[in-house]
Amino acid sequence: MKRTSAKHNAEVRHQKHSSSNKVLRAFTFVLTPFLILVIVLSSLVLALSKPYAQLKPYTNLVFDVSAKEAESKSVRTLNKYRDDDAPLQIKEIQDDETNETHTMVYPYYGDYYASITCENAGMNNIKVYSGTTEDVLTWGAGWYNGSVYIGHVGNVVIAGHNHTSFYRLPNCKIGDIVTLDTSYCKLTYIVSDIEVFHETDLTYIRPSDRDILTMYTCWNNGRLGMSEYRLAVICDCVEREWKEVKE
Fold it and tell me: What is the pLDDT of residues 122-167, one digit of tens each?
């Protein structure tokens, strides 16, 4: 009787052990592929993170700008910083050299202000808005409102991101012709200087007695992305053509 009982207990233990092994094998069979998948995906994410960071500015150049433009058309037709029916800020000015009177239109913050063209650099009708905050620079280049208004004599300063509006600014060469076109005047410049400076250096955006245009963007030795250095393209004004303003 004891032998039978001992044998029975051994068989029960064997069955339990076998059942445990089956559960463990089943669990291992299901879990192992999942763990392998997690490891592979994690490795893939790590491997692609750096290339993605380098390519992100290029994808923004193609997708982000068009998405923002579509959004603006669906939400509002004019500048969000002022009422759509706000009157034009028009003022008559006198040219100190010719004594002629000309009409200037002063922009509201965020207004579409002008366009820049430098055909030799591949920059064609780059939109310029009034202001240099991040949201304004999303739409195009930005006129720095600490500089003179376009049409006045002095240093007109315009900034832009190096992965969107000023992507081709490094292509500018000394001697290239640059035009800055507004609703009330068209200015023609010739590139005279190209400088790289630290972001804390305010030399190139300060007021100047020279009649110049200063365009600048982030500089990473030819790579895209933010940087503590700036590339400045400085141009001398050679012609100022005034237009008739229609209110």
Answer: 999 999 999 999 999 999 999 999 999 999 999 999 999 999 999 9
Token pair, residue 219, equals 């500089």
Kindly state the DSSP code that residue 148 receives in the 8-state scheme: P
pTM for this structure?
Answer: 0.69
**pLDDT at residue 227 in the model:** 85
Residue 177 contacts by C-beta under 8 Å, 6 or more apart in sequence? Answer: 118, 119, 120, 188, 189, 190, 191
Q: Which helix (H) or strand (E) holds 26?
A: helix 2-59
- The full set of domain ranges for the chain reads 111-242
d(CA 123, CA 141): 12
Dihedral angle over CA of 200, 205, 207, 209, nearest 10? 120
Please, what's the b/e burial string for 94-109 (b: 16 or more CB within 10 A of its CB; e: otherwise)?
Answer: eeeeeeeebbbbebbe
Give the DSSP letter of residue 152.
B
CATH fold of the domain at 111-242? Sortase; Chain: A; (2.40.260)
3-state secondary structure of 125: strand
